[in-house]
């Protein structure tokens, strides 16, 4: 079970990296309105939610320096590196919590619902990013549209 949970988390992260591989630097600045998050800001938010949660559910794993500042100059490379590092931190949470029968401080439902929450949160933002790009006139390649759903490969 633990290996399946780790695989699910790693697959989720691979989908974020797939999305990043299909973006251009210019697309990071795209948003639907002046008040909505840009594509880059949504990705930074996803990264920061991961890191912020480690402070609450596995304090020894928390590393504040991995948070992306709101005014950070985001690049595809910096975002990809951040997603790799934060995915490792969440994998560490899985390992640590597994040894405690899935218990987590500050997330009473436990480890499986916590990882489900993170995956759901990130899936929501991936969908919002795709919608933003589509409505802004950027075509989405089939390798991205269908690749996001290929979890069984």
- What kind of oligomer do you see? single chain
Number of strands: 0
Cα gyration radius (Å): 16 Å
What is the overall pLDDT average? Answer: 96
Number of helices: 5
**Portion in strands:** under 5%
Main beta sheet: none
What structural class results from the helix and strand content?
Answer: mainly alpha
Give the % helix. Answer: 55-70%
Notes on the structure:
By secondary structure, the chain is mostly helical. The protein is built from five helices and no strands. Helix 1 packs antiparallel against helix 3, helix 1 packs parallel to helix 4 and helix 2 runs parallel beside helix 3. The model has no long low-confidence stretch (mean pLDDT 96).
What is the topology?
Elements: H1 2-21, H2 39-57, H3 76-98, H4 111-135, H5 142-147
Helix pairs in contact: 1-3, 1-4, 2-3, 2-4
Give a quick rundown of the structure.
The chain has helices at 2-21, 39-57, 76-98, 111-135, 142-147.
Give me some keywords for this one.
153 residues, mainly alpha, 61% helix, 0% strand
């Amino acid at each position: 079970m633990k290996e399946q949970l780790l695989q699910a988390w790693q697959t989720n992260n691979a989908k974020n990296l797939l999305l990043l591989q299909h973006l251009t630097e210019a697309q990071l600045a795209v948003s639907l309105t002046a008040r909505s998050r840009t594509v880059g800001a949504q990705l930074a938010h996803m990264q920061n939610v991961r890191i912020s949660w480690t402070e609450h559910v596995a304090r020894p794993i928390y590393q504040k320096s991995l948070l992306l500042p709101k005014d950070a100059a985001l690049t595809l490379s910096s975002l990809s590196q951040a997603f790799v590092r934060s995915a490792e931190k969440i994998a560490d949470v899985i390992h640590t919590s597994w040894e405690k029968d899935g218990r987590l401080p500050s997330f009473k439902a436990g480890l499986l619902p916590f990882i489900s929450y993170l995956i759901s949160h990130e899936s929501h933002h991936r969908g919002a990013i795709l919608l933003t790009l589509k409505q802004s006139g950027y075509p989405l390649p089939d390798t991205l549209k269908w690749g996001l759903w290929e979890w069984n490969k």
